[in-house]
Amino acid sequence: MRCPFCHDLDNRVIDSRLTKDNEVIRRRRECEQCERRFTTYERVEEVLPMLVKKDDRREVFDRMKVVSGLKKACEKRPVSAAAIENSADRVERIVQDHGEKEVPTSVVGEAVMAELHKLDQVAYVRFASVYRSFQDVGEFMRELQELVQDGKRSRRSRGSSSS
After folding, report:
1. CA distance 1 to 7
2. Distance separating alpha carbons of residues 11 and 8, to the nearest angstrom
3. How many CA atoms lie within 13 A of 80 on its CB side?
4. What's the whole-model pTM score?
5. Which H or E element spans position 145?
6. Residue 151 near residue 121 (C-beta atoms within 8 A)
7. Which of 29, 32, 74, 107 could in theory staple to 79 by disulfide, Cβ–Cβ 3.0 to 4.6 A?
8. Who contacts 93 (Cβ-Cβ below 8 Å, separation ≥6)?
9. CA 22 → CA 25, 38, 58, 135, distances in Å?
10. What's the pLDDT score for residue 162?
């Protein structure tokens, strides 16, 4: 590990510990040359599958594209940055758990839609209108009606379980 101060390669680990989520190792290091201390973080490199687009092009999964899409859909909505990050984590996990070397982009799109459906209905409709590229207002209205029906069903099931 190169020292960020003097750029020397000789350093020693003073302390190592797992972060709160047990996914990353935090290491305190001391440079042998300049004796300054710095912190590094180590995580397992996970190889994500290639995404297969509708036109058969392949592209590497990009978590930042998922975050960007979620942010655009949630713009000016009461959705926290933490909720967006957590949703992006779950979408990434779905892609990883697919277990294939190549995954259709539709898997990512549907996972994002499912996350937005849970997060914010307006954001969900925004994303759906672009993702599903509705051909006319009728298709859009059918999607809205399904959303309203899902909301009524979930309110009824919550109401009956509290009796």
Report:
1. 9
2. 8
3. 3
4. 0.61
5. helix 137-161
6. yes
7. 74
8. none
9. 8, 21, 32, 46
10. 47
Per this entry, what is the length of the chain? 163
Q: Are strands 11-18 and 37-43 parallel, antiparallel or unpaired?
A: unpaired
Residue 79 contacts residue 120 (beta carbons within 8 Å): yes
**Residue 64, token pair as written in the block:** 């930042």
- Asked whether the beta carbons of 30 and 51 are under 8 A apart, the reply is no
pLDDT above 50 for 120:
yes
Residue type at 3?
Answer: C
More reliable by pLDDT, 163 or 30:
30
pLDDT tens readout for residues 54-106: 899 999 999 999 999 999 999 999 999 999 999 999 999 999 888 889 999 99
Distance CA(40)–CA(29), nearest Å, equals 8
Residue 140: its pLDDT value, please? 74
Which token pair is 20?
Answer: 């709160």
CA angle 89, 95, 100 (to 5 degrees): 155
Tokens of 114: 């499912």
- Please tell me what DSSP assigns to residue 4: T
Per the CB < 8 A criterion, the answer to whether 141 and 128 are in contact is no
